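Open question from group meeting: does this chain pack into something compact, or does most of it stay loose? Before anyone orders reagents, we agreed to write out a predicted structure and look at it together. Recording both the input and the output here so the notebook holds the full record.
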Amino acid sequence: MRIMFIPHLPTLFGRRYQLSKHLVKAGHEVHLILWDMPYPLSFGNLFKNIKNSLKSETYKKEGIIVHKIIRCPLIFPWVNRLLFKKQIRSLFKNENIDIIISQSFFSEVEPPLDLPFIYDLNDDHQAFADIYGSRIYKLAYKLLKVKKTIMNQIKNALAITTVSERLLKFAKNNTNVSVYKIPNGVEKEFLKKQRINKNNYSIGYVSHFGEWSKLEELLYSIKDLKKKYPLIKLNLIGDGPEIANAKKIIKKLRLEKNIKLYGKVDNRKRVFEILNNCEICLNISDKNSFRDASSPIKVFEYSALGKKIISTKLKEVESLNFPNVYFWEGEKIRGLTKKIEEVFHKKIGSKKIKKIMENYTWENLSKKLSKILKHEIKKIKEKRDFIKYEK
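Structure tokens returned:
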């Protein structure tokens, strides 16, 4: 099959990259579309957008054919919407594409709705804006017609894939086509046996640390736990707006020796190494509709490493029914302290957990996606043959 992938964000990592990479490994030809945009609006992003948006290139990465397409610089959504549709039509025809996988959620990068596509609903994008968005952010979502773009694709797609039960129900309520659940997954490398030099009181937390990440509560909880576990270690992997405040709290609570800030770590092997040395890994956050609809990649990666996990009681994480996940109900600091201490002393069968995780490798998930694509392409061909016969 020749597949065109339109990601929800123009970057080469995460779900979009992993599915594309493994579809290529399975023998398909995948064309992934990238572009430059000034969002979220800032002087830095605007300058970068002016510099890069008129540049186009085509190259290969791990077998994926990447098309970085031209955009109109700055904020011209009407122009870019028309330009994008024209570019997609041209690439679809010139590259002899069979089907499109779209994750688009704003109007500037909505595919032509008459071309054959499936819609991969990978987040509740509108809920994020409603819950965490500033006034400008919410206004931008209105101008970029996020709700309308999502509904247009749900109603015109050949089929829909979603990452969670909540999104699956939402899609089913708004379409008559088939809806499938393909959660996020894990790289096979996480399942390989690795050398572990572990501190029994070491905690790992990977995140983009925003206001939802419960970071302040966690730091005060570490202060309480230090009284009983003086060697306790918290490893924070990632960046985000809450890190600056976290540094102040760490200094105030004199936790410099107990907490290590790694920042954003792009080297995946290094992430494995850090997490392998941890007894517990965290997936804590606010509890809301956006979080309930998400499929946290970190939960799959922690589990593949055979780790005990403390997670906020999110609906999708609950539905996975993993035996290594222990839920924190979102109580105050004392409740988190108690939960961490409780889980320190839990015993789990890491081999059993790793066996479960074989079902969630990106390789197996892409096989499921491949079957859906083949089924939909078969229906397209049958319909075309029937139209020719009628004529």
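Observations to bring back to the group:
The two ends are 28 Å apart (CA to CA).
The chain is about 45% helix and 15% strand.
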